[in-house]
Design brief:
Structural class: mainly alpha
Helix content: 55-70%
Largest sheet: none
Radius of gyration: 15 Å
Number of domains: 1
Strand content: under 5%
Distance between the termini: 24 Å
Shape: globular
Length: about 130
């Protein structure tokens, strides 16, 4: 599967996260991360990486993700560490389990803003973050 440019859509969250904001739309958020990874690396997230992101956004422990999907705790922790490091490199800021949601909210907002500017400039190229 290639890394074709797809239209970015705003996911369900509020810009007022300090006021009781609804949770992020997890499938769309995972898709956003997959597109960002694909744009930077040419590779897609694998099933475990997708499950880890969804688990973090659902406030699950790594042990819960491991048990639910049939992996060892050690393997999930190893893949999680590698995934969060890769996301740190892609997004240009440290990504940890504790800040993943806020980093993704910022990155989605940046891409939506860039998308709106590109629409006004009639730029039909893919949006790429620096």
């Amino acid at each position: 599967m290639g890394c074709e440019a797809k239209k970015l859509v705003k996911v369900g969250y509020s810009n007022y996260s300090h006021l009781s904001s609804p949770p992020m739309d997890i499938p769309q958020t995972v898709q956003f991360v997959d597109e960002a990874v694909c744009t930077k690396t040419g590779k897609r997230l694998n099933d475990l990486q997708r499950r880890i992101i969804a688990g973090i956004l659902k406030n699950q422990k790594y042990a819960d993700v491991a048990e639910t999907h049939g992996y060892s705790d050690k393997h999930v922790k190893k893949v999680s560490h590698e995934l969060l490091q890769m996301l740190s490199d892609i997004f240009g800021e440290q990504v940890k389990k504790s800040n993943l949601e806020s980093v993704l909210e910022r990155q989605i907002n940046v891409n939506i803003t860039l998308g709106n500017k590109n629409t006004h400039n009639k730029n039909s190229g893919a949006i790429r973050s620096a």
